[in-house]
Amino acid sequence: MNKPDPQVEILVDLDAIAHNVRILAEHAGDAAVMVVVKADGYNHGAVEVARAALAAGARELGTTTAAEAVALRAAGITAPILCWLNTSDADYASAIAADIELGVSSLAQLEEVAAAARQLGRVAIVSLKVDTGLNRNGIPTAEFPEVLDLLARLVAAGTVRFRAIFSHLALADEPAHPVNDMQRQRFLDFIATAKEHGLEPELVHLSNSAAALTRPDLAFDMVRPGIAVYGLSPIPELSDFGLRPAMTFRARVLRVKRVAAGEGVSYGHEWIAERDTTVALVPAGYADGVPRPLGGKFSVWVGGARHPQIGRVCMDQIVVDLGENEAGVAAGDAAVLFGGEPGHPHADEWARALGTINYEIVCGPRGRVVRTHLGGDR
After folding, report:
1. Is 141 in the same domain as 176?
2. C-alpha of 195 from chain center
3. What angle do CA 62, 237, 285 make, to 5 degrees?
4. What tens digit of pLDDT does each residue of 115-164 get?
5. Residues with catalytic function
6. What is this structure's pTM?
7. Does residue 252 share a domain with residue 224?
8. Sorting pLDDT into bands at 50, 70 and 90, what band is 4?
9. Which of 117, 137, 353, 376 might form a disulfide with 297, Cβ 3.0–4.6 angstroms?
10. Are 374 and 52 in contact (CB under 8 A)?
């Protein structure tokens, strides 16, 4: 028995993922590409994105937590995986057993990883995340020598393998900002200090999406893009860099009806029809990831054209003004809220309207939304 089409869904184009990875690889030059698939691949599906990215030439994967990394291993992915944000109750043993590279950001965390390695009887793969100026997560300069002293002992004892030093940029979306150069120099200082302690990293990496696309001098051994992999520019005001958005957020029109001039639409009657018109009811609302503050500020692609959304965004539905409905939009037709095809509303438009960034927009669809992957080697 065939399953009915979902009322509201996101379509993820894995061929677009592959295209974006190839663009990033071109910009990276001789540097490898680590594709970041944290937060379920920015809501695109971590496993599917990982496979498509690796097939397109990415060498490694990045996640936030050990649990995310272990889930990729459970799906059969064998490429190197780094995770870098774990609390004290993280299951380091499972990560070590799965050959996950653990990003360590403090002395206490290094001690916890070493204890798990000893208990398991396995060598832990460790990388040091250093704080070069973001002042968020990462080993500060003052703590670094103490961490290195412990790391040197652990390496000598065969408890850990020292793989990399890495950091994160604060202002990469402003490529010419002097803080980027400051962070680069601090990063070099951290690397030099490690070598003075007899610790030679196998590789070092610093660049996120914005730096990977605009600052080749920050590529080092590997770049670590996230949002660009998904086809959204990290600096939309500068360029789209030839990236292709991978996500389409759409719903099926539930019904089409006439509204007379002078009638109000949706809660509060914030929109009043100035003329007799036709409207479409689309079953996607803030429970599905359409932000309520977006009401009356975006358009929907339906019937081969854009039409304005009108009135408040409700929990389960929005209303779209079709005017005379010359395209003959009917129940069951696809209504694209944002996507990547010519003419489609773009995630960047939602971000501008809401005063946020495109990252948050693609992470929004949820709840009843059904995710389907298209393309790739499936």
Report:
1. yes
2. 33
3. 70
4. 999 999 999 999 999 999 999 999 999 999 999 999 999 999 999 999 99
5. 38, 267
6. 0.96
7. no
8. low
9. 353
10. no
